[in-house]
Amino acid sequence: MLDKKEINHLADLARLSLTDAENESLQKDLEEILNYVNQLTEAKIDNLPDASVGLSQNQVRKDNEPLVNEELADAIIERFPQKDRRSLKIPPVF
Fold this sequence. Notes:
Elements: H1 4-13, H2 20-41, H3 70-79, E1 83-84, E2 87-88
Antiparallel strand pairs: 1-2
């Protein structure tokens, strides 16, 4: 159970100035949060599947053949107002 001194210390760390009513309200809220976390630590998770499956594998599709339409690319480059060879020049964003 959190006491008023601990709540004041947490408020000081967070640079908060609390009234007595806010202190009591925060004390109640934090106790409810900590009780809920304690309930979570007691949950049985022995039979749950491994959640990390798939994280170690590359999920990006492989490109078999690049989808390049040279004629279309040339037409776009031809019509672009500012270019340097095959690079298109655009105004700075910032």
